[in-house]
Predict the structure.
Amino acid sequence: MPLEGEIVILREEQPEDMPLLTALRNDLETQAWSKTLPPDYTDTMHMKRFQDREYSHDPLEGRFIMIARASGEFVGSISYTGLKPRWSATIGLMLEKKFWGTGLAFDAQETLLKFLFMELGLRVIRLFTNSGNPRAVGLAEKAGFKIAARQRQAIFKNGEVFDNLIMDLLREEYFSHHPQLVDNLPPLS
Ligand SMILES: CC(C)(COP(=O)(O)OP(=O)(O)OC[C@H]1O[C@@H](n2cnc3c(N)ncnc32)[C@H](O)[C@@H]1OP(=O)(O)O)[C@@H](O)C(=O)NCCC(=O)NCCS
């Protein structure tokens, strides 16, 4: 069942999405960063990851395709991984460049955060980015994320050195950012 945002819909991946994911991953602008240069992701790799999923009532990750409500177009992908049930998960997202600055990224991120805090009852969401990615940092800060750890001079990209950033958003921070939502879980202490 898709997660419904205001201007974006997050639906499950389908085999026909794989070439679009490969293209996003192999474009140095639309991927977050690559550990291999030039990036060499293939449709086969994405299809293998897709097919290797196990049926589970308790999946530890979720990968979604962002669809623009207005046009039905493929916008990008957003995921949570490394789920520690009732505790934490890491999110990541990437959009086709023509959709940058349209508000779709923020809506997709808000939609996934609402699911993770309200439905999965998580206490903290994390994401990884770097100081050379001001859009990703700005998008995260707009949702209330803070820089929790900075690994200095950890990344060499486009001939420049950047810091690795771990950003996080605590449950209480999320709910104070959304006063219209009620947190029905008991506080930790
Ligand atoms: C990161 C990414 C998802 C951001 O999406 P986006 O559509 O570019 O985001 P937006 O332009 O809507 O920016 C969101 C917020 O970030 C901030 N922001 C945007 N550009 C910024 C910049 N150059 N400097 C500082 N802040 C910036 C603003 O607060 C903005 O909110 P506003 O539009 O209300 O002013 C997109 O750029 C992308 O797919 N990048 C490649 C993959 C990636 O880096 N993923 C993140 C890894 S966690």
Notes: The first strand starts at residue 3 and ends at 4. The chain has one domain: 3-177. The mean pLDDT is 96. DSSP finds five helices and eight strands in the chain.
